[in-house]
Amino acid sequence: MSNQDCEPLPEGLTAEKAAELSTMFKALGDPVRLRLLSMIASRPGGEVCVCELTPAFDLSQPTISHHLKLLRQAGLVGSERRGTWVYYRLRPETTARMAAALSCVNDRHAVTA
Amino acid sequence: MSNQDCEPLPEGLTAEKAAELSTMFKALGDPVRLRLLSMIASRPGGEVCVCELTPAFDLSQPTISHHLKLLRQAGLVGSERRGTWVYYRLRPETTARMAAALSCVNDRHAVTA
DNA sequence: AGCCAGTATTGACGTATGTCGAACCAGGAC
DNA sequence: GTCCTGGTTCGACATACGTCAATACTGGCT
What positions does the domain HTH arsR-type occupy (chains A, B) (predicted)? Predict the structure, then answer.
């Protein structure tokens, strides 16, 4: 993505855009959720069953479920039930938006080179 | 950055890396801090005086100072005092690291196309 | 020195967040 | 139908977070 995606922004992000973006960043502001997203994304098939995610942590299963819910509400992942199991999948549009926002910041700083 | 920057990660980020990265994401998980970073970055000169940042918000001066401190502790900005005023500057290495992490997530998903 | 403007720190407050156990829901197997 | 397994939701708890007013610090000016 080029810095053409950046808005004019004479004084930075609008309050509305900042509020929207900050919810996505907040969702990744927890080590457990960051690892969850990483584990989900690192599957080439793009889908991971909750039963594979839970045992990777020293946390109760409800806690993992809660973190997955937050990731879903932030638009970072989607979930689908198939039979007994629930599968989570990455939403690449959202991570792409976050990466684009960060690139804007760096482009504007003009130290990208 | 290409997906060569991604680690082998058979099962996602390590707990240590996740903890380190999550503090950066958490720092941007607040709309005020996101706007602050955006305002700092959008200065071509790369420096903004605190006295220019504070009046842009309906918040007390100590609150803005607190948010700037968090941004600094997360490695996202640096500060320098010159005379009476304190100037904040972007640390592009940190935002670049965050963008790289997000790109890894998308690359691994193989839906980047 | 003494004062003043710009920042940072402190202490307190209410709210949000992460975690758990317990209870609840969904589907498959019997 | 009754179980059992995999997940979510509920309620409670301790901690962390965002905010403020008050205070302290810093450096220039007179």
Answer: 13-110
Q: What is the pLDDT of residue A112?
A: 47
Q: What per-residue confidence (pLDDT) applies to B5?
A: 61
Using a pLDDT cut of 90, give the percent of chain B over it: 73
Q: Which nucleotide's C1' atom has the smallest distance to the CA of A82?
A: C27
Which residues does residue B87 pair with via DSSP β-bridges, in sequence order?
Answer: B49, B80
In angstroms, what CA-CA distances link B58 with A42, B29, B32, B40, B72? 42, 19, 10, 18, 21
**pLDDT, tens digit, 9 for 90 and up, residues A44-58:** 778 999 999 999 999
Whether residues A92 and B108 touch (CB distance < 8 A) is answered with no
Please check whether residue B8 lies inside any domain of the structure: no
How many Cβ atoms from other residues are within 10 Å of residue A11's Cβ? 14
The whole-number Å distance from B26's CA to C10's C1' is 24
Distance from CA of A84 to the nearest CA of B (A): 23
Nearest nucleotide from residue A27 CA, by C1' atom? C17
Contact list in B for residue A109 (CB cut-off 8 A) is 41, 46, 90, 92
CATH code of the domain covering residue B63: 1.10.10.10
Cα(A69)–Cα(A86) distance, integer angstroms: 12
Q: pLDDT confidence of A4, banded at 50, 70, 90?
A: low
Full residue range of the structural domain in which residue A76 is found: 15-109
Within a domain: residue A2?
no
Question: Is residue A74 predicted with pLDDT exceeding 70?
Answer: yes
